[in-house]
Amino acid sequence: MTVQIDHALEEIRRFRPSPEFAAQAVAGTRLYEEARADRLAFWADQARSLLQWETPFTRTLDWSNPPFAKWFDDGTLNVAVNCLDRHVAAGNGDRVALHWEGEPGDSRDVTYAELTDEVRRAANVLTDLGIGEHDRVAIYLPMIPEAVVAMLACARIGAIHSVVFGGFSADSLASRIDDAEASLVITADGGYRKGKVFPLKPVVDDALAKAEGGTVKNVLVVRRGENDIEMADGRDLWWHDTVAQASNEHEAQGFEAEHPLFILYTSGTTGKPKGILHTSGGYLTQVAFTHKNVFDLHPETDVYWCTADVGWVTGHSYVVYGPLANGATQVLYEGTPDTPHPGRWWEIVEKYRVSILYTAPTAIRSFMKLGRQIPHEFNLRSLRLLGSVGEPINPEAWIWYRHVIGGGSIPVVDTWWQTETGAIMISALPGITDLKPGSAQVPVPGISIDILADDGTPVEGEGGGLLVVTEPWPSMLRGIWGDPERFKETYWEKFGDKYFAGDGARRDEDGDIWLLGRVDDVMNVSGHRLSTAEIESSLVAHPWTAEAAVVGASDETTGQAVVAFVILKASQVEHVTDPSDAAEELRRHVATQIGAIARPRQVFIVNELPKTRSGKIMRRLLRDLAEGRQVGDTTTLADTSVMTAITEQVR
């Protein structure tokens, strides 16, 4: 990460916390001290202070059967009550829980009292449909309030939800339904994306025809898109005919802290998705703690917006469970950032006076491509803290985010965590840590992180290696659904007692951590190990570049070769008459900044990059293209037509 570090160190002194965070600094410093003094006592204190327990726990951690942890396991609680009922009981029922904004411009404000009533009604409907403790419910919905309601209704009655991103294909949905043996699917007729209604219920019908298990007994359908659908007699039910008519009286019970809360599927190297299992007490403790402290949340005054879809773990932890456990007011947006116009996000920030914005680096770089004039059309002065999630953010995007969106004076926190970790693991805390562009920086209090060489030897001082978590943490995954051996082999086999999920990292001279991306994104060019993130950062540092993605492609001479896909800034496109000239200029730039060994074999100038709805670049698809293979499964992309367009441009 030489380029990132050298560039960022020049900027560090500009980004010290402002005086307004002085009180937070004192409190945050105390958190670090308490966690260092007694890590388990620290997490026990957080669990007791942040959550309401039906039965208080007496055991903090049972690590007698690693890697299977148990946190607070003799205590009981209800996750939905912690997210809703207790806030109403505390007199905050009139506080807005969700400012929901539909893509076409329709909107709803949902208070904590209203959301509690809706979840109780939905819980009664699920119970009437025969759903109970440990039953699995597949949720396939757009970003509408009913998605939050469905998740919390499952949590309220002890059912296990499996949320499937609304852009997944029928095959992907069928495989997840079969693996979880779901009894119920909750979906919608359709939802809005890029100005059009995309059908959801027909995909469910197709998936159920393909599913082999035959476990689904009912399909509950929310009316959103008003598109024509078929309803199967005896199986399919309308949400408005059932939930709206149900009683809002529901007595919630406490469940053991290790009661399963949800399964969330991630892509697996074997081709079979991995069902990541999270439980209740430990997970809710850490997402509530990190949401409160990483974002310096003040629920009485802040309006918080995490732009992730609930189909991804960021949506679980920092749209649903963390914010609602803390009684936050937040924005929920259905559509894409540029629909119906490129300034849509900033229009929403202005409308709701958003104070905390948490989004992906790829979204930030997309806005960089469009230029600062678009956000400057809107009043963004309500923002006081910015966050980054999803993949390492390059210093250039960090600086643009802070200066153009944040006005140059507010903190940017870059967070590292995974579906498997459940909650933020590495992040600066505003007002405590001197902010450093592009660096995730330090583990949050109570988390133990190290960097190891391939043989397991700790990397002392400055240097790079493999990122591991050395001690169990509350929100850690409890396994892979139905496959404990795969859980052990995937995450624990390499180092035995340390969690390793495939990320590389580097520690700089100040002791701060820089994420290098997945180890399989480290290329071996003529025996030299090069990070794709470092080369991408070099490309984005060029004034012509808005965004870049780098992959390693097989090469007969060098083993692997660097291949880059670059989007030019809108202000530069009209000045570039020959893409090959731009490509050559960028190849020279990388060679100058990093060295000749890093010079890309090819630079392709493209209009878009393949991204998931959560903003992650699907480098696997670009690698297929660079190596001349047929492009693989594109169902997880936010826009499946992007790869077709890129292929045409490359060829």
UniProtKB/TrEMBL annotation:
Transmembrane segments: none annotated. Residues 534-616 form the AMP-binding enzyme C-terminal domain. ATP binds at G390, E391, P392, D414, T415, W416, W417, Q418, T419, D503, R518, R529. GO terms for cellular component: cytosol. Residues 30-83 form the Acetyl-coenzyme A synthetase N-terminal domain. Pfam families: ACAS_N, AMP-binding, AMP-binding_C. Its cofactor is Mg(2+). GO terms for biological process: acetyl-CoA biosynthetic process from acetate. The modification N6-acetyllysine is found at K616. It comes from the Bacteria. GO terms for molecular function: acetate-CoA ligase activity; AMP binding; ATP binding; metal ion binding. Mg(2+) binds at V540, H542. CoA binds at R193, K194, G195, K196, T314, S526. It catalyses: acetate + ATP + CoA = acetyl-CoA + AMP + diphosphate. It is an enzyme of class 6 (ligase). PROSITE patterns: AMP_BINDING. Gene3D superfamilies: 3.30.300.30, N-terminal domain of ligase-like (3.40.50.12780). Residues 87-481 form the AMP-dependent synthetase/ligase domain. Catalyzes the conversion of acetate into acetyl-CoA (AcCoA), an essential intermediate at the junction of anabolic and catabolic pathways. AcsA undergoes a two-step reaction. In the first half reaction, AcsA combines acetate with ATP to form acetyl-adenylate (AcAMP) intermediate. In the second half reaction, it can then transfer the acetyl group from AcAMP to the sulfhydryl group of CoA, forming the product AcCoA. PANTHER family: ACETYL-COENZYME A SYNTHETASE, ACETYL-COENZYME A SYNTHETASE 1. Belongs to the ATP-dependent AMP-binding enzyme family. This is Acetyl-coenzyme A synthetase. It comes from Agromyces ramosus. The gene is acsA.
